[in-house]
Amino acid sequence: MAFQPIVDARDRSIFGYEALVRTPDGGGAADVIAQVRPEQLYRFDQSCRVRAIETAARLELRQRLSINFFPNAVYEPATCIRLTLMAAQTYGFPTEKLIFETAESEQVQDRAHLMRIFRDYRSRGFLTAIDDFGAGYAGLSLLADFQPDLLKLDIALVRGIDRDAARSAIVRGMVQIADALGCTLLAEGVETVEEYRHLRALGVPLYQGYLFGRPLLETLGTLTPADWDALD
């Protein structure tokens, strides 16, 4: 597992870390998922959750831990969450620190099923997140059905936003929608200071991307006050 920081620009803190699966030689999540056969997806999903929690506990992670899940692999939320709860208890990781977000590669086959999963997770005290918002299935109609704790703006909306009036207008509108619905907006894939400063001016509070830290294997990256000074 690799961990990438999610930062909160409002108080210059680490909000949490996203756990990202990697190949033994450091290849990305897409390289791993490409090797998973459909009949292995449930076991893969469960194994990733347990490994993420075990590693986070071993690294003494004190912030939130965001775990990707595969809606199509969850046949019954209450049953499938048991192993996750057992892992949290075994390794001493607080369940209230867990965030579950839809996996980037997942195309939801049954939206009603995804809503049941999200609602079950929320009832257990987990935070929820819709990943890649603004791309593919993760659009306004999904948001109308369920309002997650976090909305992760798709990288396609973030890239070059400081030079793009259309993207700026869309994100400005998303800030207003998120505020009205009680969601927190997170810009993912932020790579330049210019993108960050522009998004800050638009009112986005949370960030993730290479500008704040790359995913590190078995390591929790940090930001120093000097790092924040350079960004602001």
From TrEMBL:
InterPro entries per record: Cyclic-di-GMP_PDE-like, EAL_dom, EAL_sf
PANTHER family attached to this UniProt entry: BLUE LIGHT- AND TEMPERATURE-REGULATED ANTIREPRESSOR BLUF (PTHR33121:SF15), CYCLIC DI-GMP PHOSPHODIESTERASE PDEF (PTHR33121)
Listed name of the protein: EAL domain-containing protein
Domain EAL: 1-229
Coiled-coil region(s): none
Gene3D superfamilies per the UniProt record, alphabetical: EAL domain
UniProt xrefs under SUPFAM superfamilies: EAL domain-like
Tree of life domain: Bacteria
Protein source organism: Luteimonas terrae
MF terms in GO: cyclic-guanylate-specific phosphodiesterase activity
